[in-house]
Amino acid sequence: MTGPLPPGSVIGILGGGQLGRMSAVAAAQLGYTAHIFDPKPNSPAAQVAAQATVAPYDDRQALAAFARSVDAVTYEFENVPADTAAALGEHGLPLRPRPEVLAVCQDRVREKRTLTGLGIPTAEHAVVEGPEQLAGALDAVGRPAVLKATRMGYDGKGQVTLREDTDPHTAWARMAGSAPGAAGIVEAMVPFALECSVIVARGAAGEAAAYVPVENRHPHHVLERTVAPAAIAPEVAARADALARRVAEGLDLVGVMGVEMFVRHDGGVLVNELAPRPHNSGHWTLDACPASQFEQHARAVMGLPLAATRRHSDAVMDNLLGEDVHRWHDLVRDPEARVHLYGKGEVRPGRKMGHVTWLLADAARAGV
Ligand code: AMP
Fold first, then answer.
1. For residues 308 and 295, what is the distance between their CA atoms, to the nearest angstrom?
2. Is 195 in the pocket of ligand 1 (CB under 6 A)?
């Protein structure tokens, strides 16, 4: 692909969740249409897209037909099977970000190695293949520590905290129970002052832009609240911003990435995790910035230049998890609440059903 794809082109999105939904809407604003590929029918993204394919990710025929109908492909979650991305790559389509970025972010070991290779600080860690090795690694990493499955873990899934008295065999069994067959990575528990993230966008021409660092609160492992901007000193914010840009550059990213970080009490910043796609902690940009993270993603994937990442307001974003979605009734009566619902039929505990954003003056009024 040489120049920008013109309006009328089709963005193919693997994955039909809320991130795909909001990306499809942003793409539509730029005159594109979206084709969603997801194994489940009536996905949140398919509800707002011009075309949808419902097929398993390993259905080569369905992938070939999908590839013929789109002009560029992206993903709305990083656990798209590598074979699926490779199959689409055979059709000569731009895949953005490139599949290698997915492969790095799918595997915590590769992710840590890549970060270390880029000179980016991370939590002290060791790779462990079984409970005996875990016991040895804990001597090096110290306690408390967190054991994480190397693959398919997100929102705290496949993670076990090891306190002073936690038996490594029990911890291993618990991790393996939620991530069967997985290898593990054990990390020192970082005594952070706060968790923050930076949403960084990088265009096809290599230009990068980042939103202000935000604070993320995960009292039960899942993101509950994002506060934009994070209450951190300007030099700490600059450090976080520089790390995110270095990751995007180092990975030769095209698209948007959420870079999750820990800010230590001394102002040091460590990178925890990478998400090579729009990120939950960037949803506030829909309401508080001239161009949202979803628009930047669509722009990068379709070869357009990036738009401004400045904010016109500070913001607080709350996820509507599980039963919280029943608050919609009250929220839509509040003229200042920016309500976003994802069109998910089934309410499950902790499931991301929607979110609500307050711009700063309203946040103060709403007592959030
Ligand atoms: P993750 O899936 O790696 O993003 O972890 C989910 C959440 O668990 C993080 O947002 C933190 O709140 C917590 N957590 C994960 N790893 C660590 C660590 N090494 N030190 C302290 N907290 C952690």
1. 10
2. yes
